[in-house]
Amino acid sequence: MYRRALSGLCGIALLTACALSVLPHNEAGADNVATADAELVAATAGATTPFVTAEAETGTLGGGARIRSISPGSPAPTAASLETEASGYALVELKATGDSVTIPNNAGKSANTLVVRVSIPDAAAGGGITASLNLYVNGVYRQAISLSSRQAWNYRDATTNPDDPKASGVPYRFYNEFPVWVTGAPIAAGSTIKLQKDAANTAAVYDVDSVDLENVGAALTQPANSLSVVSYGADPNFVNDSTVAIQNTVNAARTQGKSVWIPTGKYLTNSLASTALNFTGVKVQGAGMWYSTIYRKVPLPTPAGWRSQILVGSGTTLTDLQIDANAIWRGVGGNGGSDYGINASGAGGWLVDRIWTRHVDANWLSGTNGIIQNSRTADTYGDGFNVNNGNSPNADKLGKNITVQNNFARNTGDDSFATYSDAGASGTNPQVNGTKILNNTAVAPWWANGIRVAGGQNIEVKNNLVNSVSSNSALDLGVFGDTGNPLTSVTVSGNVLNGGGGWNGTRHGVRISSPSSTSLYPTAYSTVTMSNNILRGSLRAGLYIDKTRVNATLTSNTIDHPAKQGIWITSGVTGTGTFTGNTVTNLLSGQVATQNDSSATFRITS
Predict the structure, then answer these.
(1) Which residues contact 496 (CB under 8 A, 6 or more apart)?
(2) Overall pTM > 0.85
(3) What's the pLDDT score for residue 332?
(4) For a 10 Å CB count at each end of the chain, is N or C smaller?
C-alpha cells in the first residue's frame, strides 16, 4: 500500500472567532485529541497501489551526498527547481564518486522491480544525455541502472523549441522515472538498496527523488474467446511496426464478437503513418502493465497533425497495458511527438483498468458513464487524467458521470487530475455533470495543479492525496477561462493536500476563484463545500479565496504549517463563508489564521 501521510500534526486547541481553532507551533498539549480526526483522514486518503514509495531524503547518506530541500518559511519559489519538482520538496544529490543513498525495503515483502525517479543533466546543446547509476543490495553490487535525460529538461518560453537550452527559455521538467527489473533474486523485505555514483557512472550529478518497490506477479495468460495481435502480424520484439496488425486484430474482434489479447512484448507503433488506434466497442487486454507495452515511436520532429493516441469509445474495455512514447515536448499532433495517452468518449460508457501511460499527453476523458481506475501515469506532457466535455455540443462528449478512482499520477505536465467544463465560444456546450475524483494520488506535477476543478456541477473530490506541486496549487477550484461554465457545485472532502504555492505567479495551497469580468458568465458564483480535509505545508497561504464571487462552506478542515496565512480572502471578493470547526496549526511567527481583506462584502459566519 502506498504511504499516504507525510507527517503528523502538533499543537493544542485554542478556540477563536469564526469557529476556527488555532494550534500554536511546537507547543505541547492535547495533541491526540486535536489530531485524531486529521490523522484518520491522512490514513485513508490517496490510491492503494501494489508498490511502496521510499523518499530518498529519508535514507542514509554516504560519501558527500547531501539533501536539498525547501519548506514553508523558505523564500517562496519564483522559478522551477530540482527542489520544487521533487516529491516532498526534497531530494538527495550524488555528485562525487562514492556518494550514495541507502534505503531499506520496508514494503513488507520482496521487490523484484523498482521505479527510480532521478534527474541527470541535459546535454549542453539539448537532447539529453545517457548515463548509469549503480544499484547495491545489502551492500553488494547488483546492477547498473540505465538513465537518460532525453525526455526531461524542457525550456519554458524558448524562442525555438522547448528542447533548446540556448533559446532564452527557463528550465523545468527535470526528472524522469526509470522502471527496473531487479537482476538476480528479488530484494527481500528488510534488505537495503543503495544507489551509488561510482567511477563508471559518468553523469556530473545524480539528483535522486524516490524509489518505488514492487513485487510484480506473473504475466497474465490469454483469455478464452480472444484474438492475439501476434496472430495478425504484430511484432512483440519491437522490430517491425505493429500499428496495422493491432488495428486489424481489433477490427476482427469487433466483427466476431471476441476480445483482443496483447501478449508479453514491446510493440512498435505509429512510426510509419499518422494513425490513431481505435479500440471502440472491443475489450483489449494485455499481460500486465509491466509486461505488454505499446510504444509510439513517432518521427522527431513530428510532422504537423501526426496522431498516435488510442481511441476508447462506447463499449470499450481496456486493461493491463503500458503505453509509452518517444515524445520530447508538449503539443498534441505537433513536432514534439506528444499525443493523448487514451482519448475516451462515447454515450454508451467505457472502462479503463490497470493501464500505465508514460511520456504522453493527457488521458483525455469524456462521454457518459466512463470509469478509469487502478491506473498510473508518469512523466507526461499534459494532464494526468482530464475529465471534460470538449468545446462544442456532442452527445458522445458530454462529460457526464465520469469516475476517476484509485489512480496514481506523478510528474505530470499539467494538472495531475482535472475536470473542466467548457461552454465553448458559442456558450451552448452544457455543463460537465457528476465527475467523481476519488482515492487518487498526485505526486509532484511539474506544471499546474495537483487537482483542478474548472466549472461543472455535482462534482466530487474525495479521499485524494496530493504530495507537492511545483508551479501552482495543490487544489484549484474555479473555472476554465472566459468560455468556462460556472462552478455550480463541488464537494471536496477527506483529502490530504500537501504543498502548493508554487512559482507560477502568486499561488497557494488551495485556491478558490470564479469567472472574470470578461467571462461568458461574469456574475456567476463559485459554490464550494470543503470538509475534513488536511491542507499541509503550503509555501504561501494555506487556503486562498480569490476574486470575485464565491460562496464557500468550510467544515472541520485542518490547515497545518502554511508559510503565510491559514486562510486569506483577498480584496474584491463578494459572497459568503460558512466556517465551522476548522483548525489552523503551526503558524509561523507573525502570520494569522484568517485574513479577510473583503470583510465588507464577504461575510464569514459560523
Answers:
(1) 4, 5, 41, 42, 45, 46, 464, 465, 466, 533, 534, 536
(2) yes
(3) 81
(4) N
